[in-house]
Amino acid sequence: MKKRFLILAGALLPLLVQAGPVDEYWSSLEDLCGQAFEGRLVESPEGEDGFVGQRLVMHVRECSDEVIRIPFMVGEDRSRTWVLTRKGDRIELKHDHRHEDGSEDEVTMYGGSATNAGRATEQYFPADEATRQTIEEAFSNVWVMRVHPGETFTYGLWRLGTPRVFRIDFDLSEPVEPPPAPWGWED
Predict the structure, then answer these.
(1) CB 3.0–4.6 Å: which of 28, 54, 58, 94 could bond 75 by disulfide?
(2) Is the dihedral angle over the CA atoms 95, 101, 102, 106 positive or is it negative?
(3) How far is Cα 120 from Cα 87, in angstroms, rounded to an integer?
(4) 3-state SS assignment for residue 162
(5) Where are the alpha helices (DSSP H) in the chain?
(6) To 10 degrees, the CA torsion angle through 151, 155, 160, 163?
(7) What are the C-alpha distances in Å from 177 to residues 37, 138, 146, 174?
């Protein structure tokens, strides 16, 4: 009986330690740490042209077991950083916005937490209550981040119930020179 238990336990052990979707997603982002990638605007809301014609660069700049920070540059504007935080089998996304002097923007740290473990290649982040308090019209926002190793990283936003859709695809097959530190950071 004891021998059968040991054989069964040995067969089941690999199944128990398999990585879940959050682990695989996190690992894919960690593999990009230190690298920067250029993106292209795929979809943008009508009338919002602040990203049109600008060089778009994401830089997976800081990685740990709990937090990954990805500054996002729009032309010379270095005010944005995506902050991903692991919370068990969920990930939280916050948007850290800074002024050129490093001080916090009036609208910062908005976002939300995944409501489930997502997929190894994509995570969805519905707006949280703090976001609704900060940006009333963003109460129905859902952000998505997709990572297809060696191919693309997608950052997207949908405002449910409206035509507002925003999407940038970053080419992971060709890293670019990392940009200067985002505003509020030091090298």
Answers:
(1) 54
(2) negative
(3) 16
(4) coil
(5) 2-16, 21-30, 129-134
(6) -90
(7) 8, 33, 22, 10
What is the C-alpha separation between 119 and 39, in angstroms, rounded?
22
Phi and psi dihedrals of 36, rounded to 5? -125, 150
Cβ proximity of 36 and 58 under 8 Å? yes
Cα angle: 125, vertex 130, 133; to 5 degrees: 120
| Tens-digit pLDDT profile for residues 159-186 | 998 888 999 999 999 999 999 999 998 7
Q: What is the pTM (predicted TM-score) of this model?
A: 0.88
The structure tokens listed for 122 are 């994509």
CA distances from 81 to 5, 74, 96 (A): 50, 11, 5
The dihedral over CA atoms of 169, 173, 175, 181, expressed in degrees to the nearest 10, equals: 30
DSSP string of 9-60, one letter each residue: HHHHHHHHT---HHHHHHHHHHTTTT-EEEEEEEE--TT--TTTTS-EEEE-
d(CA 91, CA 118): 9
| Gap between the Cα atoms of 126 and 139, Å rounded | 8
Name the 3-class secondary structure at 71: strand
Burial 156-177, CB ≥16 within 10 A → b, else e: bbbbeeeebebbbbbebeeeee
